[in-house]
Amino acid sequence: MNFALAPAKLNRINLLDFDRKGLEAFFVEIGEKPFRATQLLKWVYQEGVEDFSQMSNLSKALRTQLAEQCSLDTPEIVLEQIASDGTRKWVLETSCGNRIETVFIPEEGRGTLCVSSQIGCALACTFCSTAQQGFNRNLTTAEIIGQLFAAQKRLGSSQKVTNVVMMGMGEPLLNFDNVVAAMNLMMDDFAYGLSKRRVTISTSGIVPAMYRLTEVCDVSLAVSLHAVTDELRNELVPINKKYPLKELLAACRDNVKLSPRRRITFEYVMLEGINDSVQDAKAMVRLLKTVPSKINLIPFNPFPNSSYRCSSSDAIDRFRTVLHNAGMITTIRKTRGDDIDAACGQLVGKVQDKSRRHLKLQLVGSERAA
Ligand code: SAH
């Protein structure tokens, strides 16, 4: 990396783009000691200070240099909606004029922030409204950690973000480096200091990136399963054509080796008449018997022009009972914030699509046929 500082105010270095290691390298590069990194992290993430001149344990000269040549930029909150259940959705505008969404879900004793990783999404899961928006680009580290920074600033001292789920817009493992750097900051004792049990990354199953993640970053892992046969999963989660169930579950088994008490959370959206039969539940028991698992059944949240319907509560209960009787830990996700379109799969932002996704999908299909 080259940290040559810009002479003028143009091209400032956004220090929110660095995790601790990156910041240490930055300070060494400009002739400072590496411990400046922890000092800066504390000011920004623990004290919420955005003005370099207030960082009193940095030398005057360094404060001036940072003020002239660096920035602490986050995406800007342009809209806030508060649901009847207290869930808050923020629309944030990025520097390139796109919009992403971040959701805060308050519960007794905790507050969960659902964070976006990309502008739009390049995967075309058929039941997800983000997918309908197309894809623009990966978010930077600053734009990812900036969602937490902006949320905590907006919430003030009365409410605290205690948990983060990378379950907003986008596929986090397709933006690997920036997402890992942001999660490092979430867990860094000098930044947000959240425990690894309180930071969860959710993936549709980008298998090679799952192995890489296991090597470099110990966070909780959730996998969007949604179907128990390759035939159906190919349709609902098309990335399954590239990384089928057998490979996906092998990557899950590799991840649980990190600790003996570890379990993978499998997310399963309940779609009426599609994946919600008792047979499906029994097949899930067989499929997951070799993976330490927790199952999270998600009632489908509808969005305009979606052709699916949510399973009835009877069907969801029947499904849960089969799993429960087989000894599997199963929860039903409570739908939160649906009156402001803040529920799972309803986040859309404003995305200038660059993906020409339909073309790509045809290509994936023809690759498979070849
Ligand atoms: N791309 C990642 C993270 C984003 S989605 C992933 O696929 O895991 C977060 C969760 O919401 C996923 O489990 C996703 O499948 C689910 N979801 C998407 N659309 C939904 C909808 N309309 N109703 C309910 N859950 C949905």
Polypeptide structure, described:
- This protein has 370 residues and is an alpha/beta fold.
- It has helices at 20-29, 36-46, 60-69, 129-132, 141-155, 176-187, 207-216, 230-236, 245-256, 278-287, 313-325, 357-369, and strands at residues 13-14, 70-71, 76-82, 88-93, 99-107, 110-114, 118-120, 135-138, 163-166, 199-203, 220-224, 264-270, 293-299, 329-332.
- The chain has a ten-stranded mixed β-sheet. The protein has a two-stranded parallel ribbon with strand order 1-2.
- The chain starts with 12 loop residues before the first strand and ends with a helix.
- The model is unreliable at 4-9 and 358-370 (pLDDT under 50).
- The structure holds S-adenosyl-L-homocysteine.
- Residues 125, 127-128, 167, 171, 202-204, 224, 267, 269, 298, 300-301, 344-345 line the site of S-adenosyl-L-homocysteine.
Helix content: 25-40%
Q: Measure the end-to-end span.
A: 40 Å
Instruction: Estimate the global geometry from the Cα principal axes.
Output: globular
Largest sheet: 10 strands, mixed
Please, how many helices?
12
In round numbers, the mean pLDDT is 92
Alpha-beta content class: alpha/beta
User: Order of SSEs, N→C?
Assistant: EHHHEEEEEEHEHEHEHEHHEHEHEH
Measured by DSSP, the beta-strand proportion falls in: 15-25%
Low-confidence stretches: 4-9, 358-370
Spatial strand order of the main sheet? 3-4-5-6-9-10-11-12-13-14
Radius of gyration: 21 Å
Ligands, deduplicated? S-adenosyl-L-homocysteine
- The total beta strand count reads 14
